[in-house]
Structure formats: C-alpha cells, structure tokens
C-alpha cells in the first residue's frame, strides 16, 4: 500500500482587523497576520509599536514552516513568564495553523489581573483574532531546477506540458535553466522522470 503524503497546510488568507477585549480596565487588541519569514514578522511588530505608542505590552507568538521544518516563538514581552506568549501560541496550535503571527497589544488599566487572568485574556484575544480571520488550505510544494543544453529544449518542455508543471523561472542561453514548482506528493515521480532524461539534470532548490 502506497503511504499517503500530507502535502497541505492551513494558514490565514490576509491580515485581520483589530479585535478588542476589555478586562478590568485593561484593553487587549488582537491581530493576526500571514507570515513566512522573520523579516515580515519584525515589520508587523514595528508597525504595531508605532500604532500603539502608549501601550504597555506587545506580546506575540508565531509559527512558520511545515514538518519537519517548523519554527515557532512565543514572547511574553514583560508579562509574567508563560502568561502571554504561550497562551497565544496555544491558539495557533488549536486552530492547526502555520505561517501565522498573532500579536496582542495590552493597555494596562490599573488593576492587576493575576497570572490566571492574563492567561485567559491573552488566550481569548488570540482566539478572537483567529476567529475573525479567513482560514485557507495551501499545498506544500517542492522547487526544482532543471538544467540542460538548448538542443534538449523540446524533450524538457514536452514533459512540462504533459505533466502540467508550473514554471516559476526560466533562463534560455547556451545552458538553459528552468525552475518548476511541484506538489510534494508528486515530487518523487517528477524527479524520476527528469533524472531519466539523457543530458538533463534536475536538483531540488531551496524555496
């Protein structure tokens, strides 16, 4: 029996509008963003610091990548340890999402909530942010570079057309290169087809 390859994941389609939770005079603003790298995460955090200049805490959690290369972080930003970042991250796990950043901005209202109250507030705000998002399914893809001489162009393009492969980059000179994107479940078959072609080289490329 051929094992089933899971080559999809869930993420959010677009940044959400702010959601607001009020708890004992404190205000918690929740945001969710689709992200794929640390540069995007940093940009969203900097923008929220500028938007909420008088806030007390900017707590967040994110997860990027798919198994086995999953990266995550949870940040309490001055709140008691594990009272903010991990409850936020718990909602990312609960919704089974990746490539997502959730930020909860807190304005302190003068009344301490206690660790239990903070956990509930950050968890609830993160949940509200994700409930307001549009969740979509995406495929996990493999990027290949095919290298060949110009004289072998026809046989390479024939396979690309027959297998309905998506070209993302092409360079046609004396030595030609084409980058293609293949769904993970089809990647091994496509690799074998091009490997079998005479005078054609294929290798996986970092996305």
Automatic annotation (TrEMBL):
<dbReference type="GO" id="GO:0006446">
    <property type="term" value="P:regulation of translational initiation"/>
</dbReference>
<dbReference type="InterPro" id="IPR001498">
    <property type="entry name" value="Impact_N"/>
</dbReference>
<dbReference type="InterPro" id="IPR020568">
    <property type="entry name" value="Ribosomal_Su5_D2-typ_SF"/>
</dbReference>
<protein>
    <submittedName>
        <fullName>YigZ family protein</fullName>
    </submittedName>
</protein>
<dbReference type="InterPro" id="IPR023582">
    <property type="entry name" value="Impact"/>
</dbReference>
<feature type="domain" description="Impact N-terminal">
    <location>
        <begin position="24"/>
        <end position="130"/>
    </location>
</feature>
<dbReference type="InterPro" id="IPR036956">
    <property type="entry name" value="Impact_N_sf"/>
</dbReference>
<comment type="similarity">
    <text>Belongs to the IMPACT family.</text>
</comment>
<dbReference type="Pfam" id="PF01205">
    <property type="entry name" value="Impact_N"/>
</dbReference>
<dbReference type="GO" id="GO:0005737">
    <property type="term" value="C:cytoplasm"/>
</dbReference>
């Amino acid at each position: 029996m051929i094992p089933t390859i899971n080559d999809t994941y869930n993420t959010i389609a677009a940044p959400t509008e702010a959601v607001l939770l009020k708890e004992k005079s404190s205000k918690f603003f929740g945001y969710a963003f689709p992200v794929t790298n640390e540069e995007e995460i940093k940009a969203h955090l900097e923008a929220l610091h500028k938007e909420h200049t008088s806030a007390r805490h900017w707590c967040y959690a994110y997860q990027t990548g798919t198994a086995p290369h999953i990266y995550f972080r949870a940040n309490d930003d001055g709140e008691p340890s594990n009272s903010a970042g991990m409850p936020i991250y718990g909602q990312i796990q609960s919704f089974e999402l990746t490539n997502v950043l959730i930020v909860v901005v807190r304005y302190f209202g003068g009344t301490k909530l206690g660790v239990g109250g903070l956990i509930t507030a950050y968890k609830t705000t993160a949940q509200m942010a994700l409930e307001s998002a549009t969740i979509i399914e995406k495929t996990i893809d493999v990027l290949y570079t095919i290298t060949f001489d110009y004289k072998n162009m026809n046989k390479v393009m024939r396979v690309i057309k027959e297998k309905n492969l998506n070209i993302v980059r092409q360079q046609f000179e004396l030595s030609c290169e084409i980058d293609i994107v293949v769904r993970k479940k089809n990647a091994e078959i496509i690799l074998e087809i091009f490997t079998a072609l005479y005078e054609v080289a294929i290798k996986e490329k970092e996305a």
